């Protein structure tokens, strides 16, 4: 995923946070799918009435909820895969800046609460054969949904099946539309060494 937008927002988090309200409004006008799913996620999060901690804002919880809803993650990740090809591509054509930032911040916060514990997770993929050899360094290059439960991951496909140790992914079950999947979300910037094929 050489063109993936995988920023961690190091050093620019406060500026991005300040820009969020206007940016979110603008992106919702340009992206009806994002707007519709975000509105559903707001309602879903309100109805759950769960504690926000350790996240720092309701927007982070809503972003995680929106990501796990069926309609959004495919288009979002497709856009993430190409948004890093140039500054112009990111600025003019990536209409998920808010979601990307909030997910990145939420995962960093949840990782901190996990006290640096790495997690062994699974990811099943249908219709794609991943090619790598032992010793290669690889990354997903998008926000990759994985599960602590092998059976849950197998439901998503077996054409390529990953067993991954993630040290940047975070357990998001409490903030997921589908808590039974025991989801761990891996950020686009995490790299892995292939140890077995």
UniProtKB/TrEMBL annotation:
<protein>
    <recommendedName>
        <fullName>NAD(P)(+)--arginine ADP-ribosyltransferase</fullName>
        <ecNumber>2.4.2.31</ecNumber>
    </recommendedName>
</protein>
<keyword id="KW-0521">NADP</keyword>
<dbReference type="GO" id="GO:0044194">
    <property type="term" value="C:cytolytic granule"/>
</dbReference>
<dbReference type="InterPro" id="IPR050999">
    <property type="entry name" value="ADP-ribosyltransferase_ARG"/>
</dbReference>
<keyword id="KW-0328">Glycosyltransferase</keyword>
<dbReference type="GO" id="GO:0003950">
    <property type="term" value="F:NAD+ poly-ADP-ribosyltransferase activity"/>
</dbReference>
<dbReference type="GO" id="GO:0106274">
    <property type="term" value="F:NAD+-protein-arginine ADP-ribosyltransferase activity"/>
</dbReference>
<dbReference type="GO" id="GO:0046677">
    <property type="term" value="P:response to antibiotic"/>
</dbReference>
<keyword id="KW-0808">Transferase</keyword>
<keyword id="KW-0732">Signal</keyword>
<dbReference type="InterPro" id="IPR000768">
    <property type="entry name" value="ART"/>
</dbReference>
<comment type="similarity">
    <text>Belongs to the Arg-specific ADP-ribosyltransferase family.</text>
</comment>
<keyword id="KW-0548">Nucleotidyltransferase</keyword>
<keyword id="KW-0520">NAD</keyword>
<keyword id="KW-1015">Disulfide bond</keyword>
<dbReference type="GO" id="GO:0005615">
    <property type="term" value="C:extracellular space"/>
</dbReference>
<dbReference type="Pfam" id="PF01129">
    <property type="entry name" value="ART"/>
</dbReference>
<dbReference type="GO" id="GO:0016779">
    <property type="term" value="F:nucleotidyltransferase activity"/>
</dbReference>
